[in-house]
Amino acid sequence: MPDNAAYDKNIGRVLEKMLPFFREQYGNASSQYTLGVKAKRAIEQAC
């Protein structure tokens, strides 16, 4: 039986949404420059 506290079947969907931020949109969400603002917006929308 899988331990969903450590892993979830939906991880593929989450990873798909996160990949652009790992590959080309890697901004610091605490900064004021464009990539950072986009990262912060993505985090806020995800919550």
Largest sheet: none
- The number of distinct β-strands equals 0
The residue fraction in helices comes out at: 55-70%
Instruction: Flag low-confidence runs.
Output: none
> What's the number of domains?
1
Name the helix and strand elements from N-terminus to C-terminus, one letter apiece. Answer: HH
How many helices? The count is 2
Class inferred from helices and paired strands: mainly alpha
Mean pLDDT over the full residue set: 83
* Percent of residues in β-strands: under 5%
Q: What oligomeric arrangement do these chains adopt?
A: single chain
Protein name: Cysteine desulfurase
Organism: Desulfotruncus arcticus DSM 17038
